[in-house]
């Protein structure tokens, strides 16, 4: 039996079989190698990015770009980057070049042509290569390293909510600093301009900031809040009622009018009445108040601003206005002759309304009036 096996192994048929097996193995290796080479080609990822880039499809872009861990990436800022890249890129047709290596990265060049101008522009896409364990097919991600900044901070008042481009920033990125501040640390963040808002129940602060370098720190801990919309409307409604009654009390020369004083807390009513008497005295001067009545009063350029003071936990109203007035003596059956005077002044009114007062009554009032000649 052994002799027969040995004889068969030395036969031409066995040699032929060995050749066939060798050819088959080589073919399999070639097919696998070709598959790996085809599948590991970064061109497909680069083209997907290019198409998403041209459409400004941010969901598709996010899937193919390399985003480091602990990164804050936001569509509006990503859009700023895309717009900047597309600024001089007018594409009627494009040609994809063979990928190559450059500076340790895969590079795919897409040659973009503008048929009207005949201009050709090379759009370069760099890709990072990742392999896990014995993974045959690598993963490619479009390199965005130059657009990311590291170790940036935004400091805000303690307890407030931070938003960047309307995105609420997770409190996990925040740490308390002292008794009044919180610091949000961004390990990696996209370079660009952000609309930032700092909010709490009663107030909101908004502005634009530019994050342009690694290690940048923005301190927004000493800010002035505008009142939140819902509270602003309630405060303004209360103010409008009060200001009408304030000028009515001036015309009546009486700071004790109930319709006026109802808008003030008990401890503030006396000061509110004094403000009426003070401006009446300023208008009349040395003249006898009983002798004259207001025959006309016009208020113009009335402007108001409602803010929230977090330290005092109150709403503050600043109002400026201009007043023109006329005063005349009364006529009688004996004497129809009248005399009078007129004038104008500018006023600035400051009010304070505590947030805890459900009726929004005023707890403090100060008025500065400047009489015009």
In brief:
With 373 residues, the protein is an alpha+beta fold. It has helices at residues 2-9, 12-39, 43-55, 58-64, 75-86, 229-252, 258-261, 269-284; strands at 71-72, 93-96, 100-102, 105-113, 120-130, 139-142, 148-157, 161-164, 167-168, 174-177, 181-190, 192-199, 203-211, 217-219, 225-227, 292-309, 314-329, 340-354, 364-372.
The major sheet is characterized as: 9 strands, antiparallel
SSE class: alpha+beta
SS strand fraction: 35-45%
Question: Can you count the helices?
Answer: 8
The N- and C-terminal alpha carbons lie at a distance of 134 Å
The total beta strand count reads: 19
**Strand arrangement across the biggest beta sheet:** 9-8-12-13-15-16-17-18-19
Helix content: 25-40%
Instruction: Report the principal-axis shape.
Output: elongated
Radius of gyration: 39 Å
Q: Strand-and-helix sequence, N→C?
A: HHHHEHEEEEEEEEEEEEEEHHHEEEE
Mean pLDDT equals 88
- Would you identify the regions where 5 or more consecutive residues have pLDDT less than 50? 24-39
How is this fold's topology laid out?
Blueprint: H1 2-9, H2 12-39, H3 43-55, H4 58-64, E1 71-72, H5 75-86, E2 93-96, E3 100-102, E4 105-113, E5 120-130, E6 139-142, E7 148-157, E8 161-164, E9 167-168, E10 174-177, E11 181-190, E12 192-199, E13 203-211, E14 217-219, E15 225-227, H6 229-252, H7 258-261, H8 269-284, E16 292-309, E17 314-329, E18 340-354, E19 364-372
